[in-house]
Recover the amino acids of this structure.
C-alpha cells in the first residue's frame, strides 16, 4: 500500500518537474505480436478466423483462439444463467441421508460448517472459499466485465477486473466439487438410503454453464477494444511515449528488449535491453506492472515445492477421516480409502480417487522438481516436453481437492452421534496444504526461465541489436509523423520468422 503511495508521489513530482518537458524515451508497441507464455518466443500472429486457433511455433502452446459465438451476447447469456443457478444453489439442499428413520439434509454450507465445528477452521475456510465464495466472485466479475466491455467507451475499471478475473478464476472449483459429491454419494449409498436433492443437479448445471462461459469468452477481443495510453510511467518515474509498429511487419526485437504484459498479453519493445525481473513501469493498455519474467519465480516455486513435499509424507501416513458406527470405528488413510472402494467393487471410483489423490500430487511434485532442475542444469533437449508437462500440471493440479471436498460432505451428512459419525483427521489438513502449496509452486514458476537458462531465447534473436535500433528509431519517427513505419532491414542470411500455422479448433 505504502509502496504504491510512494510511487504515485514520485510520479506526480516527476510530472511537475521541468525535466518532464524534456523528450521522453519511447516504448514501441508491436501490434499483432505475442510472446509464448511457456517458452518466451515472441512471434507475429496471423489474423485468426472464427473457429480457428494459433499455436506457438516452438513449443506448440495455444497462443490465441477465435470463437464462432458472439463476443458479448453469448457470454452475457451464459453469465446470467450461471448467476441464477448460483443464487438458487445457495438456498437449495444437496442430499438427504436416512439412517434407521433419522434424516439429515445438507446444503453447500454444511460441509465447511461441520469442519469448523470439528476444529478444522482453516480447512473449513478453504472449502468455503473455493466452493462458495470464488464461484460467486467469478460470476460477479464476469458480469461487470461484460457490462463494461459492452459500453461505447470501456471504463477504466474493466482492465483491473479482468486482471483479477484471470488471477482468481482457477480458485473457483465447482467442477472438482461435483466429483467430490459423486465420490461421497457412492460411499454413502453403501451405508444408508441417500436421496439426491435439486442442489446436486443445479451444481452440475452450474459446472457446465461456467465451463461453457469460459470457453466462449474471448478476452483478447475485449482487450483489442481498449485504447492505449499515449504516455506511460516507466521505472523510477521516467516517462515513455508509446509508438506503434506496423502490424504487417515481420520484424521482432531481440528478446531482451521485448516485454509482454502478463495480464493483457500486449508485446512491447524498449530501446535498450532490460533486466529479466525488474519493474519496468505500467502497461499502456491495462496498467499492470510490466516485468519480462516473474519476480523471484524460481526461488518462490522451489520454496513452495519443498514445503509441499515435506507435508506430503504426513498427508499419506496420518488418517484423513474416521468413520465410526455404533461407537466403534477405525481411522482411514488416503490409500486405505482407495482399497476400500476397490474391495467394494467400485473399481472406476477407486481408480478416480487413486488418480486424483495419489497420482496427481506425485506427478505434480515430480514434474515441478524436474522443471526446476532443468532450469538449474540449463538443459535443452526435453524443453518442449517439459513445456507440455507444465501446462498439464496447471490444469490437473486442482483436481486433487476431490478428497478434501468428499470428507467435508461426509462429515456434514453422516452426523448421527453414537449411531454413525464421520470425523475429519489431521491427514486431511496436510493433504489440503499439499494441494494448495503445489498450486502456488506451479503459479510462481516461470517456464520461460527454462528456455532462458538454456540460452535459447538470447542465442537466436530475430534481429541483431544495432539493426533493431535503426528500425525502431525509424518506426518511432514514422509513428510521430503519422506515416506508416519503414520496411525493416534484414541481416545477411536472416529469414523472417515463420508464421504460425492456423489450426481449426478442437476444444
Ligand atoms: Zn512456445
Ligand atoms: Zn497489459
Amino acid at each position: 500500500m505504502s509502496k504504491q503511495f510512494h510511487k504515485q508521489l514520485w510520479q506526480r513530482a516527476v510530472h511537475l518537474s521541468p525535466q518532464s518537458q524534456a523528450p521522453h524515451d519511447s516504448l514501441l508497441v508491436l501490434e499483432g505480436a505475442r510472446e509464448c507464455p511457456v517458452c518466451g518466443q515472441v512471434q507475429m500472429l496471423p489474423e485468426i478466423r472464427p473457429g480457428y486457433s494459433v499455436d506457438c511455433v516452438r513449443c506448440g502452446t495455444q497462443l490465441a483462439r477465435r470463437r464462432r459465438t458472439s463476443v458479448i451476447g453469448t457470454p452475457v447469456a451464459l453469465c446470467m444463467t450461471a448467476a441464477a443457478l448460483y443464487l438458487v444453489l445457495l438456498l437449495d439442499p444437496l442430499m438427504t441421508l436416512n439412517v434407521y428413520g433419522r434424516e439429515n439434509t445438507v446444503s453447500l454450507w454444511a460441509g465447511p460448517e461441520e469442519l469448523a465445528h470439528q476444529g478444522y477452521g482453516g480447512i473449513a475456510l478453504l472449502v468455503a472459499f473455493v466452493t462458495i465464495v470464488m464461484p460467486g466472485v467469478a460470476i460477479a466479475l464476469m458480469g461487470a466485465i461484460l457490462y463494461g466491455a459492452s459500453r461505447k467507451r470501456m471504463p477504466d475499471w474493466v482492465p483491473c477486473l479482468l486482471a483479477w478475473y484471470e488471477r482468481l478464476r482457477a480458485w473457483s472449483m465447482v467442477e472438482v466439487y461435483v466429483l467430490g459429491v459423486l465420490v461421497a454419494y457412492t460411499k454413502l449409498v453403501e451405508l444408508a438410503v441417500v436421496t439426491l436433492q435439486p442442489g446436486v443437479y443445479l451444481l452440475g448445471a452450474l459446472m457446465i454453464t461456467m465451463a461453457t462461459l469460459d470457453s466462449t469468452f474471448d478476452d483478447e477481443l475485449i482487450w483489442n477494444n481498449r485504447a492505449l495510453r499515449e504516455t506511460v510511467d516507466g521505472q523510477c518515474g521516467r516517462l515513455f511515449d508509446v509508438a506503434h509498429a506496423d502490424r504487417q511487419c515481420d520484424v521482432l526485437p531481440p528478446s531482451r528488449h521485448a516485454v509482454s504484459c502478463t495480464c493483457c498479453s500486449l508485446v512491447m519493445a524498449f530501446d535498450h535491453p532490460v533486466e529479466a525481473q525488474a519493474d519496468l513501469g505500467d502497461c499502456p493498455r491495462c496498467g499492470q506492472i510490466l516485468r519480462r519474467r516473474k519476480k523471484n519465480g524460481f526461488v518462490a516455486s522451489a520454496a513452495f515445492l519443498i514445503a509441499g513435499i515435506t507435508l506430503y509424507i504426513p498427508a499419506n501416513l496420518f488418517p484423513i477421516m474416521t468413520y465410526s458406527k455404533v461407537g466403534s470405528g477405525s481411522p482411514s488413510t488416503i490409500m486405505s480409502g482407495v482399497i476400500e472402494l476397490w474391495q467394494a467393487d467400485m473399481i472406476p471410483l477407486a481408480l478416480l480417487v487413486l488418480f486424483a489423490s495419489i497420482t496427481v500430487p506425485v506427478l505434480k511434485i515430480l514434474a515441478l522438481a524436474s522443471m526446476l532442475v532443468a532450469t538449474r542444469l540449463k538443459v535443452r533437449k526435453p524443453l518442449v516436453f517439459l513445456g507440455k508437462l507444465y501446462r498439464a500440471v496447471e490444469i490437473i493440479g486442482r483436481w486433487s481437492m476431490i478428497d478434501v471436498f468428499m470428507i467435508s460432505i461426509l462429515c456434514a451428512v453422516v452426523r448421527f452421534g453414537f449411531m454413525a459419525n464421520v470425523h475429519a483427521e489431521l491427514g486431511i489438513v496436510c493433504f489440503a496444504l499439499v494441494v494448495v502449496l503445489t498450486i502456488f509452486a506451479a503459479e510462481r514458476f516461470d517456464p520461460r526461465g527454462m528456455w532462458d537458462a538454456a540460452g535459447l531465447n538470447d542465442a537466436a534473436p530475430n534481429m541483431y541489436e544495432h539493426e533493431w535500433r535503426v528500425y525502431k528509431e525509424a518506426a518511432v519517427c514514422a509513428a510521430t509523423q503519422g506515416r506508416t513505419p519503414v520496411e525493416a532491414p534484414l541481416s545477411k542470411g536472416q529469414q523472417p520468422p515463420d508464421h504460425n500455422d492456423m489450426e481449426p479448433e478442437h476444444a
Residues 261, 263-264, 266, 283, 285-286, 288 surround zinc ion (ligand 2) (CB under 6 Å). The radius of gyration is 26 Å. The chain has 17 helices and 16 strands.
